[in-house]
Design brief:
The protein is mostly helical. The chain is about 80% helix and about 0% strand. The two termini are about 15 Å apart.
Length: about 160
Amino acid sequence: MPTPYLLLVNGKIIVYVIVCLLQFILMLSVGKYFLPMLGLPALVLGNSLAGIFILTLATAFAATGYGVMVGTLASTEHQAAIMGSLSILLLSALGGIWVPSYVMPEVMRSISAWSPLNWSLEGFYKLFLRGGHVPDILPDALKLMLFFFATMTVSYLYNRKKRTV
C-alpha cells in the first residue's frame, strides 16, 4: 500500500489487539456464564481484574507483534499461514501449553522459560490459581511487551531492507 510502513502497521496492531481482547472477553464469558448452564463449575477469575487486563493486553500485543513479524518475513499469504501455524504449534509445545512445564524434564523446563507462551501462561496461573495481583504478573507482562517490541523491530528492519532492494 502506498502509505508509510508505521501507519500501516499501527492500524493492524490496533485492530488485532482489539480482536484479541474481544476474544478473551468471550472466552471469560463462556467460562463464567455458559459453563454453569451446563452444570459445570463457573470460572473463578481470581482477585485482580486489573492484573487480568494488564496481562491480557500484554499477551495481545505479543501475539499481534509475532503475527506482524511472520507476515512481514513471509513472501506470500500461503507461506505466512504455514510458517505461522507450524511455529505456533512448536512454540506451544515448548512453552508448556500442551504439557505443563512442571512435568517436563529439567532441560525442557529451561527451554520453556524462554517462550512467550509460557510467560503468558505462568502469568495467568498466578492470577487464576494462586490468587496473585498486579505486582505478581508484572515481570511476565514486561517480558511479553519486550517480545512485542523485539518482533516489531525485526519487522520494521526487514521491511526497510526489503524496500531498498
